[in-house]
Design brief:
single chain, alpha+beta, six-stranded mixed sheet, 23% strand, globular
């Protein structure tokens, strides 16, 4: 697939904000990347989850696949980090909370994947999984979220950082509602 073909299907130009209609191929892209990651690491008992908007059918999303990986100890984290590095991922440090590490894969000026590695039992992982599940379970909530995403993007003048900062309150509202 060429860079032009990928934009809008899978891959967002680095530093830009792009929102596209859901692509059914995202589930297969996620599975293929999980297989590639598993082949690159020595430890095989990690748990993988498709998270983020690309995991929710019919939801408008940035065309970047988010993958959650759950590990039980530091040894598994280091094996995961080594494997990810071998296949082109860049470590970006801790993310959002302690026990949450963040990796990205870029190719040809496109951001393709985010890998979020969480220590088993981390509250942040539970929040991400619960939010995705609520959007899947409640289509009206999913549709409202899509509408808000467009409003936030326009309000932020399509600035990726400003857009992202506006989502937190809605996510918390959904999680509080389902608690």
């Amino acid at each position: 697939m060429t860079e032009k073909e990928e934009v809008g299907i899978h891959g967002q130009p680095k530093g830009q904000l792009l929102l596209v209609d859901h692509q059914s191929i995202w589930a297969r892209i996620y599975q293929n990347e999980v297989s590639r990651i598993q082949a690159s690491i020595e430890v095989q008992d990690l748990l993988f989850f498709h998270i983020g908007s690309t995991a929710v059918p019919a939801l408008l999303a940035k065309p970047i696949i988010d993958i959650a990986v759950v590990f039980r100890d530091a040894n598994q984290l280091w094996m995961l980090a080594d494997g990810l590095k071998k296949i082109g991922y860049t470590f970006r440090g801790t993310h959002e909370e302690p026990n949450h590490w963040y990796f990205v894969l870029d190719r040809d000026k496109l951001r393709l994947f985010h890998v979020h590695a969480w220590l088993e039992g981390s509250a942040g992982l539970d929040r991400h999984l619960e939010f995705v599940q609520q959007l899947i379970n409640f289509p009206a909530l999913r549709d409202r979220y899509a509408q808000l995403k467009l409003e936030w993007a326009e309000k932020a003048n399509w600035n990726k950082q400003l857009y992202s900062s506006q989502k937190d309150a809605f996510v918390q509202e959904v999680l509080d509602w389902t608690a």
